[in-house]
Amino acid sequence: MKETHFHANGQAPEILLPRQKKILDALLQGKNDLDEIARTISTKREDLMRDIEELKARGLIEVQREEREITVLTEEAKRYLETGLPEERLARLLQKTGTIKRGEILEASKRLGIPFLQDEVQTAITHLARAKAVTFINDALQLSSPENAEQHVSKVRKMLQSIEKGETRSVDIDYLKKRKLVETRKQTKIYLSPTAKLLSLNEMGLIREAEVITELTSEIIESGKWKNAVFKEFDLSVEIPAQPFGKKHPYLEFLDWIREILVSMGFEEMKGPHVELELWNFDALFQAQDHPAREIHDTYFVKGGLLGSVADSELLKRIASVHENGWTTGSRGWGYKWDPRRALRLILRTQTTAVSARTLYSRGEGKYMCFSLDRVFRPENLDAKHSMEFYQLEGIIVGPQVTFRNLLGFFQEMARRLGLGEVKVKPAYFPFTEPSVEGFIKHPSLGWIEVFPGGMFRPEMLSALGLRNVNVAAWGIGIDRIAMTVLGIDDIRLLFAQDLEYIKGSKRPIPQSLITYPGTKNMSGSDRNI
């Protein structure tokens, strides 16, 4: 940065400072504490650190650092300075109510607009009692000495205000610490002193404030502003730092590989909306309208009471009949009066099985295999294993000869292609499949985790959708948990991490099957940049 101008006689150079002259002015006026200087020029201490280092590098100031312990107010004390000490508020309350029982203090404080927290009541009573400002009558108390209360409150307030200003003289630190109103912290104090060079240049009037110019315009030239400005220099010989190549998030790349595996197995991808009708998310799946999963603690409902619509009245009649009495399926149904308005309520879908239901309804009977890999939403508490928003891999195999063994075979094949190891299965229950199964894989640190739930869609569901002569094997895989195993992580939150260092350092999640599986023999490690 250009910072010196020479006088016409070619003698002593003039120094133009873009921002630091205010710091030097305060220093030359006798203020050497950086905190005091910051207050003087109305800025924050941390905003001056770069300027201090530049002035030091130019030989204009010397810097001394001194570490010391300081006493500061706690957040609780800061709140008390704004809202009043607990004993101060209780004294006001007692002045308005006279005698009051302990158990009625909170209720009275709400009624009179004097805020109180539950744990502040005993604190207030204790300190007013120590100040001999209250008397007790059985379980009640009254303000017996407003003067003592006022003196006590005034004393504590003055001590807190002194600490706030950085003053500790005449302050009972031990008392405030016991009340957890102050705490001790380590702070580095910075002191500045002028060098002989600064004093000399200042005496000759050779230090002036200047504006920094990074772009020269015709207006600056014509106005003459450039004469009293500092021009930022650019060194074009400096090498530009090498930028790393962009890298896709490992989880998104993993999902792309899942799609590639399924497409290679003959599946087509199906799509559906995130905001869904209860009809497709629950009713079409033969899930009763009083099922617990349809309550607010398991489902996100769209505000406003808006309803969707379904043009096919025959579909609604079939679903109603199946729910109420089983219709022609041989089932007894759920035995209740089905409500079409509830089926049309809008929710955030809780499962991609809703996409399967839409696909079966639109494509009807035949032979086809489809999958959906997309997000679902459930009111979960975020932790290492659960998230309120996650991906689900939904799939259906449709055909007259499809059996439960096709489903188990699919789970084994997916586990093999993804390198997940052994799959353990056990019987399960889902409202829309029978038989049903849950498949488990072993995570290195989390142990056995359930990732392969599925089953054969029930006749009650298929008949309502218009399918009578085919079987459907279906699953809704917790793909996030599989991703955790493949990526070698044990916290589901890392799947959505935005930390660039984590993304840069993570391995590419390419399943071994995509390198060695027949048809991809030429995909060597070097070709795939693994």
Automatic annotation (TrEMBL):
Aminoacyl-tRNA synthetase as UniProt keyword: yes
InterPro entries in the cross-refs: aa-tRNA-synth_II, aa-tRNA-synth_II/BPL/LPL, Phe-tRNA-synth_IIc_asu, Phenylalanyl-tRNA_Synthase, WH-like_DNA-bd_sf
Domain Aminoacyl-transfer RNA synthetases class-II family profile: 258-509
Gene Ontology MF, one: tRNA binding
EC identifiers of the protein: 6.1.1.20
Source organism superkingdom: Archaea
Record-linked CDD domains: PheRS_alpha_core
Listed Pfam families: tRNA-synt_2d
Coiled-coil parts of chain: 38-83
Keywords noted in UniProt: Aminoacyl-tRNA synthetase, ATP-binding, Coiled coil, Cytoplasm, Ligase, Magnesium, Metal-binding, Nucleotide-binding, Protein biosynthesis
One GO BP annotation of this record: phenylalanyl-tRNA aminoacylation
Record-level GO cellular component terms: cytoplasm
Family that this chain belongs to: Belongs to the class-II aminoacyl-tRNA synthetase family. Phe-tRNA synthetase alpha subunit type 2 subfamily.
NCBIfam families reported in the protein's UniProt record: pheS, PRK04172.1
Name of the protein this chain belongs to: phenylalanine--tRNA ligase
